Amino acid sequence: MAMIRVEGLRKTYGDFPAVVGSDFTVETGEIFGIVGPNGAGKTTTLKMLAGLVEPTEGTATVAGRAADDTETHRNLGFLPEESPLYEDMTPRSYLEFFADLYDVPRAEARTRTESTLDRLELEHRERRLGDMSKGMKRKVAIARSLVNDPDLLIYDEPASGLDPLTTNYVLEFTRELADRGKTVVFSAHNLYHVESVCDRIVILNRGEIIARGTVPRIRETYGETTYHVFTSVPLEASEPVAGSEAERHRTTVPNMDAVDALRDDAATAGGRVVDIRTREQSLEDIFLDLARGTPDTGTDRGREPAGAGDNGSATRNPDDPPAPSTPGSAGRDAPDGPGGDRR
Ligand SMILES: Nc1ncnc2c1ncn2[C@@H]1O[C@H](COP(=O)(O)OP(=O)(O)OP(=O)(O)O)[C@@H](O)[C@H]1O
């Protein structure tokens, strides 16, 4: 069942369109990422989902109820981009305070928040919040979002500005929440965050959804693949590959027809193709191309590619020395199949 259903959602501030007619659904238990550059409309979208900003047009429903319904709020954990905490409180007193607001019995709240803080490895729980680092405060804010044990979590840039270790804790923890059946919607402008945990994403630019689907499927639909063909003899446009035991020469071409042509060239030169590798464009590059409007995907832009969710592919480092393989067997070394299905 869809946890969130968004139809024709639009928000204008004065004449300025911050979100332009969004449509999407988020399934129960899914991690859904909203990605985009600064000012793309991520926060505005999340606030409309959380019932904190009123849409100019369109609707957002959560479990069949309006986003601004009181019952929806009781079942929501919202993590704002900046979460000001009461500086004189300790994590424990702060979390107890919020548990009281939600009428959560103290003992239950304590068990819940302690286990969250244990999981996030928050140290110095008796320290004043005002004396804590940014990462520690973020962990406390995350624990706060869970104090009422909500089914839906809406996190605005949960890992932004955190060190890599804390970022990892937060992202892994997000995955665990979904594994426990919670639905998580989060925004990010760092694509690495999205790629490592999200089941599906939408890419927003200037308030508009410009791509959507699973990360592997977005990569397949919008990314370009190049082929690195390794031959035993030098060809016209090849470069020698250093460090390999046998002599190797690499030529980079854009499609399989060109790969076949190289096969003929190699044979003519008395050699053969010894390996073929594919290189997928990075998500970052795809994202930048989309944001600039480079690829001409016409009316399909922002529409769910057919069969999204069942495909996987992997980014390979083209500068790895070629591994032994059967030349031409499959024509690519990026595995297709369930590898990209993250759940
Ligand atoms: N209350 C407001 N009044 C006027 N304009 C606003 C308001 N809130 C947001 N905007 C504008 O709407 C656009 C989208 O803002 P939003 O905060 O949703 O983007 P974002 O994708 O979350 O950006 P960031 O990554 O920088 O947080 C921006 O141009 C912003 O300046």
Automatic annotation (TrEMBL):
<dbReference type="GO" id="GO:0016887">
    <property type="term" value="F:ATP hydrolysis activity"/>
</dbReference>
<dbReference type="InterPro" id="IPR003593">
    <property type="entry name" value="AAA+_ATPase"/>
</dbReference>
<comment type="similarity">
    <text>Belongs to the ABC transporter superfamily.</text>
</comment>
<feature type="compositionally biased region" description="Basic and acidic residues">
    <location>
        <begin position="333"/>
        <end position="343"/>
    </location>
</feature>
<dbReference type="InterPro" id="IPR050763">
    <property type="entry name" value="ABC_transporter_ATP-binding"/>
</dbReference>
<dbReference type="GO" id="GO:0005524">
    <property type="term" value="F:ATP binding"/>
</dbReference>
<dbReference type="InterPro" id="IPR017871">
    <property type="entry name" value="ABC_transporter-like_CS"/>
</dbReference>
<feature type="domain" description="ABC transporter">
    <location>
        <begin position="4"/>
        <end position="231"/>
    </location>
</feature>
<keyword id="KW-0813">Transport</keyword>
<keyword id="KW-0067">ATP-binding</keyword>
<dbReference type="Pfam" id="PF00005">
    <property type="entry name" value="ABC_tran"/>
</dbReference>
<protein>
    <submittedName>
        <fullName>ABC transporter ATP-binding protein</fullName>
    </submittedName>
</protein>
<dbReference type="InterPro" id="IPR027417">
    <property type="entry name" value="P-loop_NTPase"/>
</dbReference>
<feature type="region of interest" description="Disordered">
    <location>
        <begin position="287"/>
        <end position="343"/>
    </location>
</feature>
<keyword id="KW-0547">Nucleotide-binding</keyword>
<dbReference type="InterPro" id="IPR003439">
    <property type="entry name" value="ABC_transporter-like_ATP-bd"/>
</dbReference>
